[in-house]
Write a structure and sequence with these properties.
2 copies of one chain form a homodimer. By secondary structure, chain A is α+β, with helices and mostly antiparallel strands. Helices cover about 35% and strands about 25% of the residues of chain A.
């Protein structure tokens, strides 16, 4: 029998940036629902919840690193002594849900009225487009952290906005546009961010077409 | 319009281990077909081919690293000065092909008659099982490098063998068992390893059931 790892909860702040202002900022916007978690933390916790409940298998991809020098000290584990961050060629998250391939990027903003498209990288847009061509379920999770509002924005709309930016210079999506073209999800307790509810809706909409 | 990165070929030996014997070893088994590439190199090159041809979108996941110390030198890019390798919680490859979620692990052996199951990690088997439950297309690509023979082995068979090992101590799959339960693929020119042909067969078999 395949043994399952015990379903320990992801530590909420394990990957918090080592920024002295972080705790203060996090404390400021702490509430019952999002408990001061970053968007990434909320998604990671939700993924763990979905995995434990056998709802979906979605993981964050590791940050790509170019390793240059590794020490192998006696009697202890290998230490990387020189390495560099590389540009990722895909989005941060992918996985499988009821036979569907899911692919998404998560982005947060402190803005209150619009989301700047420069927060996405071109390779992420290209990758989402490639996955759409293969009939993947592709989207962005956009967090307006100050407003505590979260949107699942289908990649089709995101790519349309990106193309408008290239053509007409319109460099952001207004909150109204995002509201009109996304599925809003409410930050909650378990899972922290029930984005699979929005995925269900994207699948239903797609099957209607 | 979404711009595509130019479809440059993956350098064959870019990720070759810094092992002085490598070139020699690679040279020994070089042939017209696999051109001395490791299994990973053959798969990465095939993924690039499939991506360029819009056949499938499959990427290798980066190695997970725990970063402890980063220097930010003036006028040059950040350098990671202390980091450790972490255990991956998934397989190395996943992606999307015609709406299907693909998930697989690649393993090579110099053996000629059997494949030792200890080459897989338990978390990989657990992950493949979880993805199967979500109706993913899950398999291993097993390379008998000395024989220059390559097999796409469905995860269902792999998990069965893993469970047999836990129960009865049978710690390897014989070449005959692999032949009988896998789809053999021939190393070629473009793509280096046409594993999507085997995926088509797995999908066809599944749809028959």
């Amino acid at each position: 029998m395949v043994k399952y790892p015990t379903g320990s909860a992801v530590p909420y702040r394990a990957s918090a940036p080592k920024d002295r202002g972080f705790w203060k900022k996090a404390g400021k916007r702490a509430s019952f629902s999002d408990r001061g978690m970053t968007l990434e933390q909320q998604i990671n916790e939700s993924n763990q919840y979905y995995l434990n409940k056998a709802v979906a298998v979605v993981h964050k991809k590791p940050t790509p690193i170019q390793i240059v020098k590794v020490d192998y000290p006696k009697r202890s584990k290998a230490v990387i002594r020189e390495a560099y961050f590389r540009q990722a060629s895909t989005t941060d998250y992918n996985g499988v849900y009821r036979g569907y391939y899911l692919d998404f990027e998560a982005k947060e903003t402190q803005n209150k009225t619009s989301f700047p498209l420069k927060n996405f990288h071109e390779h992420q847009i290209v990758h989402l487009h490639q996955c759409l061509q293969q009939d993947g379920i592709c989207f962005a999770i956009i967090g307006f952290m100050t407003l505590e509002r979260y949107f699942v924005t289908p990649a089709t709309f995101l790519i349309k906005c990106w193309n408008d930016w290239q053509k007409n210079g319109k460099s952001s999506m207004s909150l109204e546009e995002i509201e009109a073209n996304s599925i809003e999800i409410k930050s909650g307790f378990r899972p922290a961010l029930p984005y699979i509810d929005a995925v269900d809706q994207i699948i239903a909409d797609r099957n209607k077409q």
